[in-house]
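Students often ask why we bother encoding 3D structure as a string. The short answer is that it lets us treat folding as translation between two languages. Here is a chain of 192 residues written in the first language.
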Amino acid sequence: SIMSLSLAGSTAGVRILAEPMKNYYRETAAGHNRLSFFLGGVWAGMYRMIVAVYAFCTFNHFIPGFGFSFGDFYYTYLASYWCMYAIAGPISVLCSKRNAPLIASLTGITCGIFSGFVDYPQKHLSFGFYTAQSMHLMHDGVIENSMDSTYERWGYEDLHPGYGAFINICWGLIVYALAFVLLVVVNKEKQR
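And here it is in the second language, the structure alphabet:
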């Protein structure tokens, strides 16, 4: 489910910066504030993110009949979707408007694959790892003493599931900061 969530979030996240790029160049050439344009675009996309994750979580929580709370599930997936929106930001700045959704989708699927089940040294850098860890901890809280050996094998820590979502939100903020820097630095000649 992390791959499907990443796939949905990546293509939608590209629209935040790729669509209004001509407006950005025109407004910065006129002397308007770059940060307010960027934050406005991110803030305008929040309602889409909230509604899309709600629809996704409703289907994926109630159909299988998970025993943990819908709120924790929603918060974990919202943080993961936020990360995928953030990853789509730098991609939409660096790639053409035509190719950005495809590259962002492939990046989302890759992040979903490296969600902790594949053993590699940098897996803690993937937002999918923290989403998978939170989901595993919520599921394991319902089924007591069932999967203690998997914590060691996959590198999970026995923390509160909200910890993974908090890390994902911080991770998304860092990537959004990178997207803003790239937005300001790339194509300087069009911003004059």
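Translate back mentally: The two ends are 44 Å apart (CA to CA). Keep this in mind for the problem set.
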